[in-house]
Amino acid sequence: MNSWIEVSEERLAGNYRAIAAAVGADTDVLAVVKANAYGHGAEVCSVTLARAGARWFGVADAREGVRVRRALNAAGFAGAEILVMCGLMPEDVEAIAEHELTPVVWTAEQVGWLRGRAELRAHVEVDTGMGRQGCRPGAELDAVLDSIGSAGLVLAGVMTHFCAAEVAGSEKTREQRRRFEEAIAQIRRSELRPQWVHAGSSSSVDNPADESAWLAEVAKSVGARAMVRCGIALYGYCLPIDGVGASSKLRSALKPAMTWKTRVLDVREVAAGETVGYNATFTAPGPMRLALLPVGYADGLRRELSATNARPGGWVVIGEKRAAIVGRVSMNLTMVDVTGIEGVRVGDEVVVLGDGVTADDHARVAGTISYEILCDAGKL
What we know:
This protein has 380 residues and is an alpha/beta fold.
């Protein structure tokens, strides 16, 4: 095996406990394991998080929910709740019913597909300003609530999603909170009583203007329990909090759970003036010793981490020392500079992503976010 991923169960569990401590006893934490647990492996991570205390898990679709359900059942966590967060299609209904998944719905048409599934539980998403999925408070929400009642489904939860959770003191978040309160008041006037009210994300918890206390009060107003949905923080990362004087509440307590490793495939000497890689974008300024790694952009190592003489790129870690990427990252191979690292040999272990070279480091050089780096790495 030329390249592999290791996931620390200890760090993953520790991150979950840090999030739970941050939101307090009045709020539960839904562990988001969609997108194959952000590249970490949904089945393995779900079981680890269940052992750490998680009882709710968020997946993207029914197919992913089935995989997680089977893993949790096999590990003795048959009572875990699995929320299908990104909608459903008619062909998903059988799997949802058979594997006791909880779908998120926001249209009467979606509810109609579930009709006849006695006592099937669903969560309604309210669009308070994300503009992506969900029904708006007012007539749209009334139509969904009426359809749930007539279809014989159980309204188990109500949710929304903040679009600017990583902005301290966001006016947009304040407006979304106001609209969500309107939606909850509207539900309170109906005959339906949800068990769960949830909003927020890793950034919501990390933000010094944490929404947890507000959310607990909103949930209490309709006789429900509050819940936040955290994903990236489980895996050791949070987006920077923007705003004047903004600070992070959670980041210092988190540790990256993923380590991506490979091995040195070859070591060679190059003379001053020799070029390296496609289009000869790097020229050795002096004698150099380079290591060849069997990873590239086909494996999830971003091409934007490439380096020229004028522009430094990314790096890996060999023997606890940085080895800078040299030239272009190609499809399956990458060259790194080991001139200053003694004794590097074929077969030596290399950290592509982990301690000393984090997803935040990759993201900063590549001009993206840690979410994308982790998901790409997990495609191995």
